[in-house]
Structure formats: structure tokens, C-alpha cells
TrEMBL record:
Keywords: Membrane, Transmembrane, Transmembrane helix. Belongs to the CD225/Dispanin family. The gene is IFITM5. This is Interferon induced transmembrane protein 5. Coiled coil: none annotated. One of its GO terms (cellular component) is cytosol. It comes from Pseudonaja textilis (Eastern brown snake). Its main location: membrane. It comes from the Eukaryota.
Length: 112
């Protein structure tokens, strides 16, 4: 004899929130050392505003991590990472492009 399914009704709830990509308990990176490196060594080309912004968001990420608000720490961490990438690219790529233009002679044509 099979049990009747109509007699046993159970409530089933389904969580419709998107699954988080982060692992539970994972600590966010704050990129503080990268921010300090950009500020002190790579900000000589007037792009210190990007380096300083990265440093501010790195400190905010670290503060939020200490207080236990991991969601805010992840937000500030991703902003710090973006600003660090921009500052590094501007500080490395721009001089290389200028050197390439001087070597090929394109800049000296317009200066003379």
C-alpha cells in the first residue's frame, strides 16, 4: 500500500536570492601594500590622485574587515583594486608610450 501524498503536505521554501560568488568566511583583500607602493613609487607623474584614492579605499576596506562588515569590505576592496590598476597602468604605460614615441622620432618632429 502506497502512502497518499495528499495527506502529508509540507511547506517547501526556495531562496530566490542569487548565490554569492564569495566563499563563506573568506576575508577580502584590502590591497594596502599595493596602494602604498603606487603612492610612494609610481605617483611621480601627477597621477597621485588615483594612488591616494586607492589608499583611501584600502584603508576603508581594512576598517570594515576589522569591524566585521565583510560586504562593505568587499565593495571598498574592489574599488581599491580598480584604482590601483588604473594608477599602475598610467604610471607604467604612459612613460613607455612616450619613450616609444621619442625613439621612433614622432615627438621630435613636432617639437622642432
Amino acid at each position: 500500500m502506497k502512502p497518499n501524498c495528499a495527506d502529508k503536505e509540507e511547506e517547501v521554501s526556495v531562496d530566490l536570492k542569487p548565490a554569492s560568488r564569495r566563499v563563506a568566511g573568506e576575508q577580502p583583500s584590502d590591497y594596502l601594500l599595493w596602494s602604498l607602493f603606487n603612492l610612494f613609487f609610481l605617483s611621480g607623474y601627477c597621477f597621485c590622485c588615483l594612488s591616494f584614492s586607492a589608499l583611501v579605499f584600502s584603508v576603508k576596506a581594512r576598517d570594515q574587515k576589522v569591524t566585521g562588515d565583510l560586504e562593505a569590505a568587499h565593495r571598498y576592496s574592489s574599488k581599491a583594486k580598480c584604482y590601483n590598476i588604473l594608477a599602475t597602468m598610467w604610471s607604467v604605460v604612459l612613460p613607455l608610450v612616450l619613450i616609444a614615441l621619442v625613439i621612433t622620432g614622432l615627438i621630435t618632429r613636432y617639437i622642432s
